[in-house]
Amino acid sequence: MVSSRRLVLVAQDQRLAIAVQGHLQKAIQLTAPVVRFEDVPGLLTPETDGDLLFVAGDPTDAHQIEAVVRETKVQHLPAGLSVLETEAVRTSGRLDPLAPYLAHRFVWPHQPRELTAWAQHALSPGAPFAEPLTEAVAATIRRRLINHTPSLTAMVEQLCIAAAHDVTVLIEGETGTGKTYLAKLVHDCSVRRANRFLVVACGTLSGNLIASEFFGHVRGAFTSADAAKVGKFAAAGEGTILLDEIDTLGLEHQANLLRVIETGEFEPVGSNETQICKARIVAATNWNLADAVERGSFRRDLYYRLHVISFHLPPLRHRPEDIGPLVRGMVARYGTKYGKRLYGVCPEALRVLEAFPWPGNIRQLENVVQQAVLTSTGNELKVHHLSPQVLTRADAPAATLPMPGGFDGTLKQTREATERANILRALEKAGQSRTRAAQMLGVSRVTLYKKMKHYKLLQAKGPVAYPFDEFNSRVSGG
């Protein structure tokens, strides 16, 4: 008997699915796996061209089938989509709107011969569906990256090493580039996958709360400690803890963290009882920690402990090949969340999104796509659904914009000048409120403070000369 993942049955009604599976086994000696609707995203890749057969035993199955069909079509995945439905489902007409997007529709049990003839295609050559439970780690990582961020597939080998070995990992990159996603991927592919994955946003914590957040505290440890609290290092158990914006930690807290990494030991605030951290530590930063070490704001010994395996995530403006898959995945997700019947993204809208520089990276892209989905009508996301800000910036002929006098054109100088200008304008719009400016820029207040210090903006008073004034005015349409 042949088992083939070229044909997979997707069903809520397991009894009906087993009956169909038994028919195929008896008719053509083919064992077709049966999966749930929620398992489908883990099977699909842009390379898999097998067939999904949705088994609809009740009209209420139509909602889940519609969601999978839309998400598959939006993301341009090559899997074939067909439905086997009972007479009750066919009579209800609930699946009729999906007819243009389905390869075949069969009525069970009235069309067994037609179903059998069609199922023969499952034995034809092609790329089978993934088997998440048995596939190699490298295959899992590659599948998840190629579905969303294909430019990062060059990291597969290094990510496999990080997943296989219980060492600290450092991930560097601008805010919103996907550092949390990468950390979660390492966790999901490690032996710790069954345990918790916790994120600590270090940049949002004030200095006197960091120790309590990390290590917990006992009742009465300080004025507002009305009850004992379990810290993140204990709560993570044998899972993974991601310390985001680790560069914002003060030297005192860096020393405490170094001790945890070296010995695993820590004490809750107000307690003399030593506990052991069993979690794996992954650190993420928006800054180059090597530069912070040279400036004396980050401990050299801690940097070396964190830098066992490291990854650098390029900004989205340097990864144009990722925008298409990211946009389609977001449209699929938000389309389902908001009940929009979107089956595609028009090429013109995608070109506009690819032309935008995305200073806020993936986080900004997700916000724009979410807004577009909310305002969309029809079955395709179009240009007029996008925000005016994106349309104005994307339409600007960047290649013809004049560069300021004396600028030598290096990438570092371009980035720093643009970043400094964005900070100044955000502060101006926010009435010099660092809290509101940080929210506008998509970073923490601590990160904004550090960047202002780096660009010598803390003492700035009076009128400010913005770099790239002509450049910025033309890009913004001013």
Account of the protein in words:
- The radius of gyration is 26 Å and the shape is globular.
- The longest helix has 19 residues, at 411-429.
- Residues 395-409 and 460-478 have low confidence and may be disordered.
- Helix 2 (62-74) runs antiparallel to helix 13 and helix 6 (156-164) crosses helix 7 (179-188).
- It is of the alpha/beta class and 478 residues long.
- It has helices at residues 14-28, 62-74, 87-92, 112-119, 137-148, 156-164, 179-188, 207-215, 232-235, 251-263, 289-295, 300-306, 323-337, 347-355, 361-375, 388-395, 411-429, 434-441, 445-454, 469-475, and strands at residues 2-3, 7-11, 30-31, 34-35, 51-56, 80-86, 104-108, 169-173, 197-201, 216-217, 229-230, 240-244, 265-266, 275-276, 280-285, 309-313, 344-345, 380-381.
- The N and C termini lie far apart (69 Å).
- The chain folds into 4 domains: 2-123, Rossmann fold, CATH 3.40.50; 137-313, 3-Layer(aba) Sandwich (Rossmann fold); 317-395, Helicase, Ruva Protein, domain 3; 409-475, Arc Repressor Mutant, subunit A (Orthogonal Bundle), CATH 1.10.10.
Termini separation comes to 69 Å
Structural class: alpha/beta
Strand content: 5-15%
**Extended strand count:** 18
Keywords: ATP-binding, DNA-binding, Nucleotide-binding, Transcription, Transcription regulation
InterPro entries: AAA+_ATPase, AAA_lid_NorR, Homeodomain-like_sf, HTH_Fis, P-loop_NTPase, Sigma_54_int, Sigma_54_int_dom_ATP-bd_1, Sigma_54_int_dom_CS
Domain Sigma-54 factor interaction: 145-374
Organism: Frigoriglobus tundricola
